[in-house]
Known about the structure:
- The radius of gyration is 27 Å and the shape is elongated.
- The longest helix is centred in the last third of the chain and has 18 residues, at 501-518.
- Helix 5 (120-136) packs parallel to helix 7 (156-168) and helix 8 packs parallel to helix 9 (214-223).
- It is α/β, with parallel strands linked by helices and 538 residues long.
- Helix content is 39%, strand content 20%.
Amino acid sequence: MATPVIIFDTTLRDGTQGEGISLSVEDKLKIAQKLDQLGVHYIEGGWPGSNGKDIEFFHRSNELNLSHAKITAFGSTRRKDSKAETDPNLNRLVESGVRVATIFGKSWDFHVHTAIQTTLEENLNMIYDSVRYLKSQGLEVIYDAEHFFDGYKNNTEYALSTIQKAEEAGADWVVLCDTNGGSLPNEISDIVKVVCSKLKTPVGIHAHNDCELGVANSLAAVQAGARQVQGTINGFGERCGNANLCSVIPNLQLKLDYSCVSDEQLQSLSSVARYVSEIANVNMPVNQPFVGAAAFAHKGGIHVSAIMRHAKTYEHIVPELVGNKQRVLVSELAGQSNLLAKAQELGLDMSNETNQTKHIIEKIKELEHQGYQFEGADASLELLLRQAFGGIDNIFTVESFKLIVGKNGGDAISSEAIVKLKVHDETVYTAAEGNGPVNALDNALRKALVQYYPDIQQMHLSDYKVRVINEKDATAAKVRVLIESTNFDNSWSTVGVSENVIEASWEAMLDSIRYALIGKTRVEQQAGLSERLGLVNH
């Protein structure tokens, strides 16, 4: 039976300390619900002693219908030369209503003297008193030993004495923190082994990613005896971020045979990663391991030819195990096998011998010669192939659109779009404003369609890129527009090309809307999936 490892998520606390990350109370409540569905064991909601937003979150966390996770509040040990019972920070933890408190204390003698400016003995008292007081209030206590590895390397005896004080006071967990993120996996492993031999209390790891080793250090700690891993979704966090749970969890479970979440929960990992990125309004790196859009994408013709025979040739795991999927990229660098594999992925009957196949291959080559790029616009490519081979319904027809862009005096430039569509043999004529011409067109198009397709409200444009193709033509140059859209469950990219940036944007936008709408009735192709999933048992 696989050894269990407890997952402690701190996206809502440590993650929000990352540059550009800001979450409202509503955001935090939504993410907490998703994290519970993923199967994490602890969700650190914030620091009730630091701001009113976190206090509100803890009060409203009772609204959450959590089935698995425990909400925990974060704080520090008592102030120097005071009593735990009267410490405002500790009492806010008690008043927050949580069942679990996570507090940090100093392990590094340098920090004791420099940061909190007290004696080594008083720091030990602060740790003991704080843990003991919270335990007396009926709370489960997780003690985070801040800067533990730096402290251990500087003064081993003292660093060990700090966590022994926490254990003596009744801490339920002792978590070793590589707060500066500067330790190496072999150091983490050696030190965790020593600590596990010294303590009866279970040990955890809290790693930062300043040396790109947050995940590696977390895995090393678990292999050395740690049984709790703290981290964040997508590695959000201060400076270079925290250990990325989207890599920690599958590595532990699929590579090292530990048990973190159920197999079904693991299959939701990619969607949770995308959801958190969308809520935080941060673009997720396409090459993020396990959950990124490019994690199982294949472009080279030799690679694609091989995976068509057996996916294991160029994929280290089955993508569906983490809720991701295999993607074949089509570009001028890819061979014919890429296109055939893409069609097969979509369940389309396409061979390299028919005239229709030859025609679509030539058409794609011609479009790429014009400036289209399909390796970054998988949704536009799918629509093109489905139109050629599978047939798709003409969901709506654009009859016309107009744009009015103007400026009155010192006012900002205003944009208004008017669109005329035919939907289900009905003519729809509507207008909408936007903060720019593309946004106005997007708003008008969706306003016209929402009465027929209410689910369109769930999708939105998440990224917009313009690339000049032939710079020598200056303002008359042809441009390529790439649009990325999302509906919280999925994301897709579309492309448009024209000498007019508005027309290119409109083309990409129409593809994005059409893709979203046919997706409601499109049957996901499962050919070969059972066999691929069976690979893990071989």
